Amino acid sequence: MNKSNNGAAKKRRWLIGGLAVVALAAILWASYRPRPLDVETASVAEGRFEQVIEEDGQLRLQQRYLVTAPTAAQLQRPAIKVGDAVKAGDVVAVLAPNAPGMIDARTRSVLQQRVGSADAAVAAARANVQRAQAALAQATLEAERSAQLAKDNFIAPSARDQSRLAREAAAQALKAAQAEQAAAGHAASEARAALGRAEPSGAAQGSTPGLWSLKSPVDGRVLKLHKDSSEPVQAGAPLLEIGDTGAMEAVIDVLSGDAPRIAVGAAVQLSTGRNQPPLAGTVARVDPVAFTKTSALGIEEQRVNVTVALKAPPEELQKLGDGFRVDARITISANDGALLVPSAALVRQGEGWQVFVVEGGKARARTVTFSDRNADSAWVKDGLKAGETVILYPGSGMRDGQPVKSRKS
């Protein structure tokens, strides 16, 4: 009886010990077994693949008109401000004659003496005219008398001819005297005008005779006032700029290496700011000349200007302005029905590329080839199928066969 009890107790101890060993093994396996890695995933899908160039630029007016001073003058204080709307023919600037320079007392005295001298010359010329008139009258009487005497044969014909020539000479002398009188009169007027610059005039006392109004050449808005106060200006000095903000274009500077890839007519999307709808446009011109520009990193780059024609209506462009910054997305090529995988899933493998595909809860390395890629996605040529799930940002620690727990991006 005792032997049977001891055997049963021994069996129970062995059973309990075995169960304890199994439980400990289960605990150790659960503690040290590989845990699924939480990863971000995305699906491989068919869609539109676009190769684009993304750069920034600015808006500018298609036509800008610069109003300049046609002559040296005194600009009147402008009545318009930047942003004011103007119509073609509206007065946008007014010019007045320049004020004469100030003259000192000595110069004024000299000018007064010149006026007196000129008046005296006028009087002398007037006297010469009167003397010439008297001489002509006498020569005329002598010529008439000689003609009558010659007709009655009291004098020779030569005497008659001599008196006639004397009358003609007297007539020419009168004309010369009259011309001298006119010249003396003009000289006197010139002397008085020179003296007049030294005396206060109506224009200097506040009146503005001879104003010259400059008019707007087109309908538009005032973009810039080069002169915002009354001041003297020289001929050709810029006064203000006018343009139509409803007719604008965008200019985007791209790297010279990217310029040959851009075709005229290519689609462009422009972003003008946060929460603003994009503007659509097309490439109108690619400049044939490059220029040097220093990047934000201090690197000199060769850039080329690309002009974009906007498709937005004028009333929408009126909300924007000349020089506004835009972010441009220029489409180089586009293909529909392409098999796309996010660029974030690609991992370098030697000279090629691979992705990690989620299969049965594990990451499986898959070599892929693609036709083209951009910053967002790659156009897969071989190695993947539509609907498969790939791991994004797998990192250097990802291994083939590693358990993963997927979450969609």
TrEMBL record:
Coiled coil: 122-149
Region of interest called Disordered, as start-end residue ranges on this chain: 188-212
Signal peptide: none
Gene3D superfamilies (alphabetical): 2.40.30.170, 2.40.420.20, 2.40.50.100, Helix hairpin bin
Pfam families assigned to the protein according to its UniProt record, in alphabetical order: YknX_C
Single GO cellular component term: efflux pump complex
Molecular functions (GO terms): efflux transmembrane transporter activity
Biased composition (Low complexity): 188-199
UniProt entry tagged with the keyword Coiled coil: yes
Domain YknX-like C-terminal permuted SH3-like residues, every copy: 339-405
Keywords recorded for this protein, A-Z: Coiled coil
Official protein name in the record: Nickel and cobalt resistance protein CnrB
